[in-house]
Amino acid sequence: MMSKVFTDAATALADVVQDGQTVAVGGFGLCGIPEMLIHGLRDSKAKDLTVISNNAGVDGVGLGLLLATRQIRKMVASYVGENAEFERQLLSGELEVELTPQGTLAEKLRAGGAGIPAFYTRTGVGTLVAEGKEERDIDGKRYLLERSLTADIALVKAWKADRAGNLVYRKTARNFNPVVATAGRITVAEVEELVDTGTLDPDHIHTPGVFVQRIVVNPRPAKHIEQRTTRQE
């Protein structure tokens, strides 16, 4: 069997990243982001990307790097409040943005990974989110039809993987990563620790290796703090 393990992000992305692709990226704020892979995507110079992610990082960190280089044409996101460059591009009309309620975004990715093309939800009924969407009454309540999301490439961050691509996430980093991992046609995982196949307890595996095509190891990831709060003296 061909190895899924690549030496670095550039090598893992080199023959799969193209202009105009849709890329789904795991993480929540700066927690659980595949930082090495985001750097690799930036260095690939791929442009006109549609990026699906809960948020767009912050200025100079995470997906904020791709905003700075103008590689993102469209963002599908839930929360974007900590990124000044994102705000500037949005208000100037340079960046197309599809704001999506957070739970709806998670379900759109989960459903896409499960092969479900669309689903009904009450979230967003009667708001701007409902514009242009099909609505339906079910049991006396109004629902919106939401289309699922899939991606050409999914970039995720896990704590541990085996060589077969089975992934284990750690604590809060198990946020959007599992649903992003299943929604990608090609999923590349950045992990802190790589172990031999058969080492992981099957009951502890969060993403089965069948969803993961490539792995890169980043044993010492940066731990950025989005909002530093300290006690006043």
Give short descriptive properties of this protein.
single chain, 233 residues, alpha/beta, 3-stranded antiparallel sheet, 6 helices, CoA_transf_BS, transferase activity
Q: How is the topology of this model organized?
A:
Layout: H1 9-13, E1 22-25, H2 35-44, E2 49-52, H3 64-68, E3 72-77, H4 84-92, E4 96-99, H5 102-113, E5 118-121, E6 135-138, E7 141-147, E8 151-162, E9 167-168, H6 177-183, E10 184-195, E11 214-217
Parallel strand pairs: 1-2, 1-8, 2-3, 3-4, 8-10, 10-11
Antiparallel strand pairs: 5-7, 6-7, 8-9
Helix pairs in contact: 5-6
Structure description:
With 233 residues, the chain is α/β, with parallel strands linked by helices. Helix content is 21%, strand content 27%. It has helices at residues 9-13, 35-44, 64-68, 84-92, 102-113, 177-183; strands at residues 22-25, 49-52, 72-77, 96-99, 118-121, 135-138, 141-147, 151-162, 167-168, 184-195, 214-217. The strands form 2 sheets. Strands 1, 2, 3, 4, 8, 9, 10 and 11 form an 8-stranded mixed sheet that branches. Strand 3 (72-77), helix 4 (84-92) and strand 4 form a beta-alpha-beta unit. It starts with 8 loop residues before the first helix and ends in a 16-residue tail after the last strand.
